[in-house]
Amino acid sequence: MIPEVGNFALVLALCVALTQGTLPLLGAHLNRQQWVALARPAAVAQALLLAIAFGCLTTAFVQNDFSVVYVAQHSNTLLPLQYRVAAVWGGHEGSLLLWVVMLVLWTLAVALRSTQLPEAMVARVLGVLGLVSAGFLLFILFTSNPFERLLPGAAEGRDLNPLLQDPGLIIHPPMLYMGYVGFSVAFAFAIAALLSGQLDAAWARWSRPWTTAAWVFLTIGIALGSWWAYYELGWGGWWFWDPVENASFMPWLIGTALVHSLAVTEKRGSFKNWTVLLAISAFSLSLLGTFLVRSGVLTSVHAFATDPRRGIFILVFLGTVIGSSLALFAWRAPKVGLGGRFGLLSRESLLLTNNVLLVVACASVLLGTLYPLLIDALGAGKLSVGPPYFDAVFVPLMLPAVFLMGVAPCARWKHASVRELARTLRWAFVAAAVVGVGAPFLFGEWKPLVALSLLLAAWIVFSALLNLFERVQSTRAGQPFLAAVRRQPRSFFGMHLAHVGISVFIVGVTMVGAYQAEKDVKMEPGDTVSVGGYSFRFNGVREEKGPNYRALVGDIDLLKNGAAVRKMFPEKRFYVASSMPMTEAAIDTGFLRDVYVSLGEPIDKARPDAAWAVRVYYKPFVDWIWGGCVLMAMGGLLAISDRRYRIKARSAAPAPAVTTASLAQNA
Amino acid sequence: MKPRHKRIALILAGLAILAIAATLVLNAFQSNLVFFFSPTQVAAGEAPKGRSFRIGGMVREGSLQRQADGVTLRFVVTDTDKDMTVAYKGILPDLFREGKGVVAQGKLGDDGVFAATEVLAKHDENYMPPEAAKAVGDAHERAAANQASAQAAARTLKQ
């Protein structure tokens, strides 16, 4: 009964989404207030219906209702409750439902928080979101219905992939999807602007917090995925340039460009067309990511199912969304205008350069991701593009971008002078050079690339501090220094915090890449192996039982200079229902380094009590990688919380009259 | 500078970035494309010498051998038609099993042994790496075609 309620709720939600996607848009065009007024109630109704559907699926999982195909395929009576709930999005159908739920949550947030926006604009934004939602609901209902029945019901479920039975699964996909789907709001704002022809500083100010919020979620989602891969896959890697990872990274790159481009559009009115194009691209890449991961074209951990119908549907959907929005762009963009002019060297031009670098980086990732698929589809053979390609292309593109990150915040809008910039920044650069050249001596062999990376990381921090100091000095007006610091807007601190996050991230990536040490060894009980100044003593393996698995648990003493640091217990698990083995690494996390141990396999399969193949790692600064991402996200949050989004939004209240007038003109 | 000159300069700068990027990309692309060969293709000498490539197929039952150090391994990968020996030093992924699909990346040595730097077996019991599936599928198709032509030949002989 409950699954049928869920299914019915989905059908009703589709009807509401279609209404939301048509009438308000038409109403805004024809100036019919009743139709425009439908947008908000429809958004609320859709959110309620999808909450019901999601609740029904969750109930089916909690109650172990194996007469539902999706539940039978992804759960098991032995599965602990928290993973039964997380299993809702552990497979194809459920994760699509999660996608739509995220979409209606964003829609609801826009509907509730947009009281200061002109009604016609709200109607257009919600209308576009309604159309996107309708597309996905059609996809779910026709190709991937999670409520499909299995008659007669199965006695026992097939269990969730053991790899996914981890706290990481509970939070990684929702965060990632919040980010992916969040760009739909930026997209809807862009389309609304194209439809109305109204694209100005006020428009940019409305879109900015939404775009930044999506970017924050995506940053956290990607970082969580990377961290999860690091501790769960047992290989100690944090990024593999796997197509699935690239699928989430491409919207992030474009989203980052969009956040900066929106800043220029808001402050200076420039880059309008470029901003709109980026908003369309960010969302298109989110859809492409969904297509790549969900259609089964990339058969990997994340592709839970392979079904050509699904692939074709998403491809058609993708083509419709991208095609129609680009057509609209081509038609309406000339109306939007170019906006304010700026000098060859100005904050605008520096931001534009960074934008171009980010877009080119994204394009090169796209090429490396799609090329093997294209060759495969053409039947020209199988090939893969190795991680060295991405490293070789990505790093040289990002080096100048990171350098400019230190310069742009200090450059004036409209026109900046080289001499002035050089005078302001020279000491920051000298200090960064000292740190960059000197620091590698502390950690081991001096390598030029390490020195360069650390120089750039220090450069970001020093130039940010300098920028803060200069700005406070110039606005101080006789006040005490700290009081003037406190008066600076939050978005200013947000920007620099996010930039410092990049710096911390660079330190992590550089150090772990250059100075990590690893060993794969055979260890008899009592053997000791040393790596990175630590010794590991293997005391053998004992057997343990988990709720739905049995485990062989290694007992390892971690020693430094002969003194015991702690005990480590890496595991080899065998899941009962799926009979799949899983490696659980033991990690000693520290501020400056991680020590990482994972069990390979017993040397003699028949004697797990004897020697084992063991992998040990020493990973300096590896946690800085994710720490940097957390700082970036915090910077984004700080920027969103800036007072001016609230105050100016209020002062923009009389705007509707103006907009209606301009609308009438347009019509 | 006049606005027009500025615009031209900006466009030129943009084009320069694009040109540098394109060069980088194409260079890196050429040297990092990893091609895939089945054991049959390797046996026919189609695989490049001295360049990294991927092979795939099934791990032959009972072929896994461990050297005394415990982490140097040898196993045989087959597409059911031709076999090839793979040497690997390190820890195998969780889902590496004899009789299951596998993909390995590395270089072909002069002794005909494939020295793998990476062994991939993906995380699903039912899942077969697409390259491995293709290698085995191709070999089966060839076998079927051979059988068909043999039957045709036999029929002609009988007539």
Automatic annotation (TrEMBL), chain A:
Supply one GO BP term.
Answer: cytochrome complex assembly
The UniProt entry lists membrane topology as: Multi-pass membrane protein
Gene Ontology annotations for the cellular component aspect, listed alphabetically: plasma membrane
Q: Which InterPro entries match?
A: CcmF_C, Cyt_c_assembly, Cyt_c_biogenesis, Cyt_c_biogenesis_CcmF
| Compartments where located | Cell inner membrane
Protein family per UniProt:
Belongs to the CcmF/CycK/Ccl1/NrfE/CcsA family.
Name under which the protein is recorded: Heme lyase CcmF/NrfE family subunit
- Give the function comment from the record: Required for the biogenesis of c-type cytochromes. Possible subunit of a heme lyase.
PANTHER family reported for this sequence: CYTOCHROME C ASSEMBLY PROTEIN-RELATED, CYTOCHROME C-TYPE BIOGENESIS PROTEIN CCMF
All copies of the Cytochrome c-type biogenesis protein CcmF C-terminal domain together span 315-643
Keywords of this protein's UniProt record, alphabetized?
Cell inner membrane, Cell membrane, Cytochrome c-type biogenesis, Lyase, Membrane, Transmembrane, Transmembrane helix
Broad class of where this protein is predominantly found: membrane
| UniProt-recorded Gene Ontology molecular function terms | heme binding; heme transmembrane transporter activity; lyase activity
List the transmembrane segments.
6-30, 42-62, 96-114, 121-142, 177-197, 209-229, 249-265, 274-292, 312-331, 352-373, 393-413, 425-443, 449-469, 490-515, 624-641
Q: Domain Cytochrome c assembly protein spans what residues? A: 89-295
Top-level taxon: Bacteria
* Native source species: Candidatus Accumulibacter affinis
Automatic annotation (TrEMBL), chain B:
Name the residue ranges with Low complexity bias. Answer: 144-159
Gene Ontology cellular-component annotations = plasma membrane
GO MF term set = heme binding; metal ion binding
For membrane topology, the record states: Single-pass type II membrane protein
Q: What is this protein called?
A: Cytochrome c-type biogenesis protein CcmE
Give the Extracellular compartment stretches of this protein: 29-159
Pfam families annotated for this entry?
CcmE
Q: Which Gene3D superfamilies match?
A: Nucleic acid-binding proteins
**Similarity annotation:** Belongs to the CcmE/CycJ family.
- Keywords assigned: Cell membrane, Cytochrome c-type biogenesis, Heme, Iron, Membrane, Metal-binding, Signal-anchor, Transmembrane, Transmembrane helix
Q: What is the lineage of its organism?
A: Bacteria, Pseudomonadati, Pseudomonadota, Betaproteobacteria, Candidatus Accumulibacter
What are the binding positions for heme in this chain?
H123, Y127
Q: Its GO biological process terms?
A: cytochrome complex assembly; protein-heme linkage
Q: Where is this region: Disordered?
A: 137-159
> NCBIfam families this protein is in?
PRK13254.1-1, PRK13254.1-3, PRK13254.1-5
* The UniProt record lists the keyword Cell membrane: yes
Tell me which InterPro entries the record gives. CcmE (IPR004329), CcmE-like_sf (IPR036127), NA-bd_OB-fold (IPR012340)
Q: Which HAMAP family match?
A: CcmE
Q: What does this protein do?
A: Heme chaperone required for the biogenesis of c-type cytochromes. Transiently binds heme delivered by CcmC and transfers the heme to apo-cytochromes in a process facilitated by CcmF and CcmH.
Cytoplasmic compartment residues: 1-7
User: Where would you find this protein in the cell?
Assistant: Cell inner membrane; Cell membrane
